[in-house]
Amino acid sequence: MTNAVNTEAQEIDAHALHAIAQYKNFSDLAGKVVFITGAGSGIGRAMADAFAVNGAHLALLDINADLLAQVQRELHATFPQIDVMTFVASITDDVAVAQAVDAAQQHFGCIDVLLNNAGISANRPTLELAPADWRRAIDINLNGVFYCAQAAGRHMVQQGSGVILNTASMYGTVAAPERAAYCASKAAVVMLTKVMAVEWAPAGLRVNALAPGYVQTALVDELVRTGRMDLDALVKRTPARRLGQPHEIATLALFLASGSAAYINGQAIVADGGWSAYSYI
Question: What is the enclosing helix (H) or strand (E) of 68?
């Protein structure tokens, strides 16, 4: 089953850029400056591809230097017309985050969009959840999102415009067992998004949250391969009868960052194939 899943993922990845380029053209994003965290892989990498297709300049941050360098090389080769900066840092380091955002603003002259994407999963029975694991989930999934949004928001408020998209989760809107740290951190991201949205809207900013369901990434493939995730059960439980794909979340980000979503603010947009709407277990 795993081999079939990986083959399908490769086929979808091979056509992802073509689909975005052919059918998802957001011309008003051309020339915009987009700062993306967690850009080395998964949804963050798909976001980088999607915005590059539409002509945006990119500032990419990730904790993995090798992945980040590979992404930069591939983007430069595929999209020579755009400028790509990279920063190696943890979003839990508020000083490093502020320095990266400041450097991007000085280089480009502005930051138009923040895709606040970096985060981790956390799946453990609540009675077995170690304090260190709880703190790590909160530090990355919540504190890191706050540091990045605050750093970008300071520049955006001064320039009088900007879009921030915080990556939450469907598990920030519905509960699930053995995910206390994850659900709590992602629910906090949703509320943080709403506070920032109402506070910064008068300054010309929009702040929304992406709330994906199960998305097929390298991490999910590895969990399936090692038997830590039951893919058949997940697919059966999802009304769409499949997992989401990174480029589908990236396309949602394109829409929310574009002028087409100019009146959408303070919302958590769930993209989960109907998972959270379906109450049957």
Answer: helix 65-78
150 located within any domain: yes
DSSP labels for 146-195? HHHHHHHHHHHHHHT-EEEEEE--GGGTS--TT-HHHHHHHHHHHHHHHH
Write the CB contacts of 281 (distance below 8 Å, at least 6 apart in sequence): 237
Catalytic, 182? Answer: yes
Q: Which of 182, 214, 263, 278 is catalytic?
A: 182
Q: Which two tokens stand for residue 231?
A: 């893919």
Q: What is the pLDDT of residues 146-176, one digit of tens each?
A: 999 999 999 999 999 999 999 999 999 999 9
What's the pTM?
Answer: 0.91
Concatenated DSSP letters of 116-138: E---------GGG--HHHHHHHH
- Say how many domains are in the chain: 1
CATH of the domain at 140: 3.40.50.720
